[in-house]
Each structure stands twice: as structure tokens, then as C-alpha cells.
Amino acid sequence: MRKTTKLAFAFIALAGAIGTAAYADESSRGEDGRDGMTMRLNKVMKDQNGTITFDQFSDAMDSRLKKMVADNGGKLTVEQLAAALEKARFEQMAKRIIARYDTKGDGTLTTDDITGREKKVFAMLDRNNDGKIEQTELLGRSGHHRQWDGGGSDDGGMR
Fold first, then answer.
1. Of 83, 71, 85, 74, nearest to 16 (Cα)?
2. Can you say whether residue 157 is alpha, beta or left, with left for phi > 0 and alpha for psi between -120 and 50 degrees?
3. What sections of 24-110 are H helices per DSSP?
4. Fewer CB within 10 A of the terminal residue: the chain, N end or C end?
5. How many CB atoms lie within 10 A of CB 23?
6. Is 45 exposed, middle or buried (0-12, 13-18, 19+ CB in 10 A)?
7. Taking 70 as the threshold, does the pLDDT of residue 146 lie above it?
8. HSE, side-chain direction, 13 A CA sphere, residue 11
9. How far apart are the C-alpha atoms of 121 and 100, rounded to whole Å?
10. For the residues 111-140, what does the mean pLDDT come to?
11. Which pLDDT belongs to residue 64?
């Protein structure tokens, strides 16, 4: 087998492991920290009286990578896999941002949600409640000033 073919197979195996991890959902974790794969394999093990064949193992594994390959004509390029992994990463980030800002709990982000969050943060920083944040109010617990550029960056001037 050619060296490039071996490298390609090694990359596919690595990408499969990474892809499975990237797609792992927080809800797939058990109370004791076991991940979804272990839980699925334990379920198959119980259903099959303590043994698992390769076919049963393959069926129990996360099939999203196989679906991606099938959806792309039986082949998956580096670009396609990278795009899927990036999408999964950014979807997780978006879920965290929505959860942080969404005041109504409807899974959407509105200008009112953002403004509400900004008001809360401003109120926490405005320790003397005078409607202004002074340099002395930016002192952190360690006595060091928080980073503040005073400008209009996307994060409201906070870093």
C-alpha cells in the first residue's frame, strides 16, 4: 500500500474520532460523566447478554460520519469534513451565547435580550449606582484593573 494511502486512512480514522467528539452533545453525557458512546455500548452489551459483535458495535457507534460520507457520494474530502467540524463547533458556541442572553427562554436572541444583558453587566460594574462606570469601579478582586479599551468593540468595550 502506498504511503499516501496509508496516511489518508490514518487521517480518516483520526477525523472520525475527532468528528465524533465534536458532534458529541452535552445531553449525551451520563450523570457519572460517561460519554454517549460508552452508554450506547453498555446498552448493546446488556441487550446481547454480555457480548458485542462488530456489526452490533458498528450499529451502536455514532453514525454521523458515515452519513456524511454517504451524503457526499461515498467520499468525504478534507474540506467537507473541516466545514462540518467547524459548523459543529460554532453551533455549540451559538447555543452557549443564546443560553446566556435569551431572557425569554425561547431559543432566540433579540435586541432586547442583548440590551438586558448589557444592563445587568453595567449595573454590576457601576458599584456606586451613579449611572457611570469609573476607573476605580473596574478594579478586580485581585486589585488589578480589568482590561477596558473604552471604545466600541463588539464586546461592549470589555475584554
1. 85
2. left
3. 36-47, 54-60, 64-71, 78-101
4. N
5. 20
6. middle
7. no
8. 12
9. 12
10. 89
11. 79
